[in-house]
Specification:
By secondary structure, the chain is mainly beta. The chain contains two helices and 13 strands.
Length: 219
């Protein structure tokens, strides 16, 4: 009986050690690459020439490198680097201005944001993440040319950026996971508009809704 009791104690101790090792080995870092489509919103996509904030932006390409660390099952820290490029609705602009040779290349911006992430487990393998972040971005205004002549050169400007988003993470096994979701970004850079004759500053409100998917690793 004593031997039987001793064996039970040894087994219990072994299971306890194994559970502690499993807990210690829990992976809390998530790194993913997330390409997607950036849909301009509000003034950024307006085609109204009478609206001085109209950006004439169309849906474009965006890509994010996202890192996330889970402090617990429900809260963590997220850091996200991003690049966004939106072309201009040039045909509409040509129709409105009557300038068939008018050309504008694109709007683009890149930056870095960070902030808390709130984690809502759906199952052992599926989780939802809600992020609220802020940071800095560098934005680029388009070249404006006609008949091969540059009317207004491009300009780069730094500004703050606000971002919030909702994402789904699905554990694929072997440290891999799938992620997909929505991110809303807002920035308001001020560009120098220099035509050679007139020089002034103009602020462009940029609101973009990113729809993206990606693959990542958990480590």
């Amino acid at each position: 009986m004593k031997k039987f009791y001793f064996m039970i104690c040894l087994l219990s101790f072994g299971w306890s050690l194994q559970a502690q090792e499993t807990k210690t080995a829990e992976k809390k870092s998530y790194l993913s690459l997330q390409p997607g489509i950036g849909f301009p919103l509000g003034n950024f996509t307006s085609r109204d020439l009478s609206n001085e904030d109209a950006g004439f932006a169309v849906a474009g390409f965006t890509i994010d490198l996202a890192y996330q660390y889970a402090f617990s099952d429900n809260i963590g820290l997220a850091v996200q680097g991003f690049y966004n490029k939106n072309d201009v609705a040039i045909r509409k602009l040509r129709d409105l201005t009557g300038l068939p040779e008018l050309r504008l290349d694109h709007w683009q911006f890149l930056g870095l944001v960070a902030g808390p992430v709130f984690i809502f487990p759906i199952s052992d393998k599926v989780k939802t993440d809600f992020k609220v972040m802020g940071g800095f971005a560098s934005a680029n205004s388009p070249d404006i040319t006609t008949d091969g002549t540059v009317l207004v050169p491009e300009d780069w400007s730094g500004c703050g950026v606000f971002q919030t988003g909702l994402a789904l993470r699905v554990d694929l096994g072997n440290q891999a996971f799938f992620t997909g979701g929505l991110d809303y970004r807002y920035l308001s850079p001020t560009f120098k508009v220099d035509s050679g004759i007139l020089s002034e500053e103009a602020t462009q409100k940029m609101s973009v809704l990113k729809v993206g998917v990606g693959i990542g690793i958990n480590f």
